[in-house]
From TrEMBL:
<dbReference type="InterPro" id="IPR028346">
    <property type="entry name" value="HAUS2"/>
</dbReference>
<dbReference type="GO" id="GO:0070652">
    <property type="term" value="C:HAUS complex"/>
</dbReference>
<protein>
    <submittedName>
        <fullName>HAUS augmin like complex subunit 2</fullName>
    </submittedName>
</protein>
<dbReference type="Pfam" id="PF15003">
    <property type="entry name" value="HAUS2"/>
</dbReference>
<dbReference type="InterPro" id="IPR026242">
    <property type="entry name" value="HAUS2_metazoa"/>
</dbReference>
<dbReference type="GO" id="GO:0005813">
    <property type="term" value="C:centrosome"/>
</dbReference>
<dbReference type="GO" id="GO:1990498">
    <property type="term" value="C:mitotic spindle microtubule"/>
</dbReference>
<dbReference type="GO" id="GO:0007098">
    <property type="term" value="P:centrosome cycle"/>
</dbReference>
<dbReference type="GO" id="GO:0051225">
    <property type="term" value="P:spindle assembly"/>
</dbReference>
<dbReference type="GO" id="GO:0007020">
    <property type="term" value="P:microtubule nucleation"/>
</dbReference>
C-alpha cells in the first residue's frame, strides 16, 4: 500500500495495529467493519460541495466584473483608449500649428480681409479642380432655386388657408364649367333655329312676290316688317 493505515497490522506494527489485529483474530471485528470506517462521512461531502459552489460563484462574480469592465472600456474607448487619445492629440496639435501660423500672419491676413476680393483668382490645387467644378454647378443651381425655396418656406404657415382657397376656386370652376355647358347648348339651339328661319325666308319671299303680282292681300305674318304691310295697304 502507498500509505500506512493505522488499522492494518501488517503495514503499521504499532499499538493500534496490534489491537486491531487481536480483535480481528478473535472475531470481534471483521474486514467489512474496517472498510465502513474508511468511507467519508456525508456531512463532510456536503461541506466539500458547498466549498466548490462557493468557489464557482466567486469565479462567476469575477467574470461578471471583468465583463462590466470591458463594457465600460468599450463605452469610454474614445476618451481613455490610447489609440483615440493619440488621434485627438494629433488633431489638437494640427489645430495648434494652424493657429500659430494664423497669429504669425495676422497683419497680412487683416490687410487681405480689408482688401476686396473682386476679380481675383484663389489658388486651388489641381487635385481639387474637378470637385470645384461640381461645387460651382451646385452653387449656381442653388442660387437659381433659392427664391423659389424661400417662397415655399414662407408659404408653409399659410398652407391650410391656401388649400381652402384652392378648394373654393375648384368649386367655382365646376360651377363655371356647368354654366358654360348650358350656354353652349343654348347657343347650339339658337343656331339651329336661325338656320331653320334662314331656310324659310326664301320661300316666304317667293310667296309674297307671287301674291304681290296677283294683287292678293294676305294677313301679315308675325315676322314680316310693318313697312311692307303699309305699302300693300296703300296700293
Amino acid at each position: 500500500m502507498a500509505a500506512a493505515k493505522s488499522w492494518d497490522p501488517a503495514s503499521a506494527p504499532n499499538g493500534a495495529g496490534l489491537v486491531l489485529g487481536h480483535f480481528i483474530a478473535s472475531g470481534m471485528v471483521n474486514q467489512e467493519m474496517l472498510n465502513m470506517s474508511k468511507k467519508t462521512v456525508s456531512c463532510f461531502v456536503n461541506f466539500t460541495r458547498l466549498q466548490q459552489i462557493t468557489n464557482i460563484q466567486a469565479e462567476i462574480y469575477q467574470k461578471n466584473l471583468e465583463i462590466e469592465l470591458l463594457k465600460l472600456e468599450k463605452d469610454t474607448a474614445d476618451v481613455v483608449h490610447p489609440f483615440f487619445l493619440a488621434q485627438k492629440c494629433h488633431t489638437l496639435q494640427s489645430m495648434n500649428n494652424h493657429l500659430e501660423a494664423v497669429l504669425k500672419e495676422k497683419r497680412s491676413l487683416r490687410q487681405r480681409l480689408l482688401k476686396p476680393m473682386c476679380q481675383e483668382n484663389l489658388p486651388i490645387e489641381a487635385v481639387y479642380h474637378r470637385y470645384m467644378v461640381h461645387l460651382l454647378e451646385l452653387a449656381v443651381t442653388f442660387i437659381e432655386r433659392l427664391e423659389t425655396h424661400l417662397e415655399t418656406i414662407r408659404n408653409i404657415p399659410h398652407l391650410a388657408a391656401n388649400l381652402k382657397k384652392m378648394n373654393q376656386a375648384l368649386a367655382k370652376m365646376d360651377i363655371l364649367v356647368t354654366e358654360t355647358e348650358e350656354l353652349a347648348e343654348n347657343i347650339l339651339k339658337w343656331r339651329k333655329q336661325q338656320n331653320e328661319v334662314s331656310s324659310c325666308i326664301p320661300k316666304i319671299l317667293a310667296e309674297e312676290s307671287y301674291l304681290y303680282k296677283h294683287d292678293i292681300i294676305m294677313p301679315p305674318l308675325p315676322f314680316t316688317s310693318k313697312v311692307h304691310v303699309q305699302t300693300t295697304n296703300a296700293k
